[in-house]
Write a structure and sequence with these properties.
Layout: H1 4-18, H2 35-38, E1 47-59, E2 63-71, E3 90-96, E4 109-124, E5 127-141
Parallel strand pairs: 3-5
Antiparallel strand pairs: 1-2, 1-4, 2-3, 4-5
């Protein structure tokens, strides 16, 4: 009997560690309809949770509308990173009040919840694109994702113990035990004087 207690504890810790939590404002049950499917019509009045990357933010006198390139949502309801085949069309989400376009800038990740209310046609180049319109209850701007790069070493750097890869080479935990790399871009040197 005492053997099962540690196994139960390990299983519970693994289960809790694997759970991703959805931010409280985005929690709830929503219809699984994509923005591309809603373009065809017939989804009016449907409660949805959609997200993606902001294309543009247009504040108006009563509300602000966000034009969004739709992406699938991960287990936290955050838009997944861009990938081939991940494009799900576009949609527009409008919410009452003013949202600053300098904060809600192009490329930022946004998740909204709300109700579909028809479509709005806007030009994308010369094409008339029908954006499904969401009357948003919640507008959730995600923090910017951190950018990780590897640590550079000066030219000719060599440490016989650590070297540029640590004492164990590329196994045993690489790349997780290395610090972030900072890349410095310097201007080209001036041409030699003649």
């Amino acid at each position: 009997m005492s053997l099962y207690r540690p196994l139960t504890l390990i299983a519970a810790i693994a289960l809790l560690g694997g759970c991703a939590t959805i931010p409280q404002p985005l929690q709830g049950n929503y219809t699984n309809v994509s923005s591309a499917a809603a373009q065809q019509g017939g989804a009016g009045g449907t409660q949805v949770r959609w997200g993606g990357e902001i294309i543009k933010t247009e504040p108006g006198p009563q509300q602000t509308c966000f034009y969004i390139l739709a992406r699938p949502l991960d287990s936290q309801a955050r838009p997944e990173l861009s990938r081939a085949g991940g494009d799900q069309g576009r949609f527009v989400a409008c919410h009452s009040g003013f949202y600053d376009p300098e904060v809600f800038t192009r490329g930022r990740e946004l998740t909204v919840t709300g109700t579909i209310h028809g479509t709005v046609t806007q030009k994308v180049g010369d094409y008339d694109y029908p954006y499904p319109r969401v009357e948003a209850d919640v507008v959730y701007l995600w923090p910017k994702r951190p950018v990780y790069v590897e640590t550079p070493y000066p030219p000719g750097f060599y440490d016989p113990f650590w070297g540029p890869w640590g004492p164990w080479g590329y196994g045993y935990g690489y790349p997780y035990w290395r610090g972030p790399r900072v890349i410095v871009v310097r201007p080209a040197p001036p041409p030699p004087k003649k």
